[in-house]
Amino acid sequence: MNSTASDPFDQSSAPQEKVLVAAAAIAIAVPGLETEVLIVETPDEVATGCTGLRVWGCSLDFSSYLVHHAESLGLRDSTIVELGCGCALVGFTAALLGGQVIVTDRDLGCLELVRASAEANFANIASASGSVREMHLDWCWFQGVEGIPYSQADFVLGSELIYDRDCARILPSVISALLRPRGRFIALLGIRDVSMLHVFFTAAYTAGLEFTEEPRSLKPSEAAVERSATFSHDREVTKTTHAWSGYILVEMQKCAAD
Fold first, then answer.
1. Backbone angles phi, psi at 190, to 5 degrees
2. What is the pLDDT of residues 79-101, one digit of tens each?
3. Whether the Cβ atoms of residue 173 and residue 141 lie closer than 8 Å to each other
4. Alpha-carbon distance 37 to 113, whole Å?
5. Do the beta carbons of residue 42 and residue 24 sit within 8 Å?
6. How many domains does the chain contain in total?
7. Can you tell me the distance from the alpha carbon of 94 to that of 82, in angstroms, rounded to the nearest whole number?
8. What is the pLDDT of residue 49?
9. How does pLDDT run across 116-136, given as a tens digit for each residue?
10. Tally of CB atoms within 10 A around 154
C-alpha cells in the first residue's frame, strides 16, 4: 500500500510491534468444514491488552454458521471483508469456502499472525479457489485507504465487534462504506450490554443498513465455551459467564441506491 508521511495508515512511522516469538500454530476443526484451519495465535500475549491475538469461541461458532449456510448465502467467489479479524478464523474459513477475502484489523500484531496463518493455509485455500489477504484498518480512519474495496464488498463479516458505545456508533458507517448496494453484513455479537446494541442498530439505520432477518439469540456451543475459557485465570467462572451471556446473530444489507 502506497502512503505518505501524513497518512495515518503509514506503517513505516507506526510504533514497532514486538516480534511474537511465542506464536504457535494450531489446527482448528470448524464443524462442517472438511479441512482444518491452521491458525497462529499467541494466547499468552492477550494479557498485554490485545484480545485479538488468540481465537475466541464466538469466532468458532460464527465460522461454523458460515460453513452450514455457505451455499444459501452464496459465499463462493464473493468479495468478503472481515472486520476486527484478530487471528482471522472467520476470514480463513470464508476463503476455504471459495470466498475472495480481505481480513482487516487495526492491530499490527494480529496482522503479523494472520500473515503466518495465510502461509500455512495457502495450499488448501488455493485448492478451494479462494483467496485471503490482510490489511491494516482502523475504523476511526477508514476513508481513502488504498486497496480497500469501497462499495464493492458482497459481504462484511465480523464476530465480537462491539465493546463500547463509541465502537457501536462508528462501526455502521464503516460497514456501509464497504458494502455494494444490497451487499450483506453478517455478524455474531456477544451480548454484553443491550444498550450498546441499541446504539449500533440506531447508527446502522442512519448509515443505510436494514435487517434482512430479525436478530436471533444463539447459545454458544460447548466447544466455543471451552475455547473461551482455555486461557482464563478462572476457567469455571469464565465458562459459566460465557455460556449464559450468549450471542446475537445480526444479518443486514445495504439499501439500494436511489
1. -70, 140
2. 999 999 999 999 999 999 999 99
3. no
4. 14
5. yes
6. 1
7. 9
8. 56
9. 999 999 999 999 999 999 999
10. 20
